[in-house]
Write a structure and sequence with these properties.
By secondary structure, the chain is mainly beta. It has one domain (about 5-150): Regulatory factor, effector binding domain (Multidrug-efflux Transporter 1 Regulator Bmrr, Chain A), CATH 3.20.80.10. The chain has helices spanning about 30-40, 115-125; strands spanning about 5-20, 55-60, 70-75, 85-100, 125-130, 135-140, 150-160. A 6-stranded antiparallel β-barrel has the order 1-3-2-6-7-4.
Length: about 160
C-alpha cells in the first residue's frame, strides 16, 4: 500500500545542538545525549513554539558526501537568543512532504517509504527533492518520546517540478 504525505509549507527555526552520526554503530545513545542537553537548557530559551516538541534534522553538510552525516536536535524557538552551548538553525520557508512514522527508519532515510514516494513523484513529474535543504526532519509528539519506536512526523524537503 502506497504511503501518501501531506504537502505543507514550513519554516524551521531551531535552538539546539549538533552531533556527528556514525551509522556503523548504535547511534541512539548519541541522540539521547543531544536531546538531554537541549532539554536541560529549555529554561534559558525564549519564544518556544507550543507544544514544545523535539525536532531532529538529519543532514549532510556536503550534499553527496554520505560519510559525513549530522544530526541537529532542537526545539522550535526564538533563534535571536541562544543559550550558551547551543546553536541556532534557521531554514527558510519551504515545501515539505510530511509523513507519520511509527518507528525510526520506516519513512525517512534513503530506503524509507517517504523517499520511495518521492522517487515515484519524480517519475510522475510532480515533485522533486529540494537539495537546498540537504536532509530531512523528524518532529516528535513531545520532548521525551524520542526513542526509535516513538511516533514522529517526517518532513522531506520537496519542490514542484517546473514545467
Amino acid at each position: 500500500m502506497a504511503v501518501e504525505p501531506s504537502i505543507v509549507h514550513k519554516r524551521f527555526s531551531l535552538v539546539g545542538m549538533e552531533g556527528k552520526i556514525d551509522f556503523g554503530s548504535d547511534f541512539n545513545p548519541d541522540l539521547k545525549a543531544l536531546y538531554q542537553k537541549v532539554i536541560d537548557q529549555l529554561d534559558g530559551m525564549r519564544g518556544l513554539t507550543e507544544p514544545v516538541r523535539m525536532v531532529g534534522y538529519w543532514y549532510y553538510p556536503t550534499l553527496g558526501n554520505f560519510e559525513d552525516i549530522r544530526y541537529f536536535a532542537g526545539v522550535e524557538a526564538d533563534t535571536s537568543y541562544v543559550p550558551k552551548g547551543l546553536a541556532a538553525l534557521n531554514l527558510p520557508d519551504s515545501l515539505f512532504a510530511v509523513f507519520t512514522e511509527q518507528k525510526r527508519g520506516i519513512i525517512g532515510g534513503p530506503e524509507g517509504a517517504g523517499y520511495k514516494w518521492l522517487n515515484e513523484s519524480m517519475r510522475r513529474n510532480q515533485y522533486t527533492y529540494n537539495g537546498a535543504i540537504p536532509g530531512d526532519f523528524e518532529v516528535y509528539r513531545n520532548l521525551t518520546d524520542t526513542a526509535p519506536d516513538c511516533e514522529a512526523e517526517i518532513y522531506i524537503p520537496i519542490e514542484k517540478v517546473k514545467g
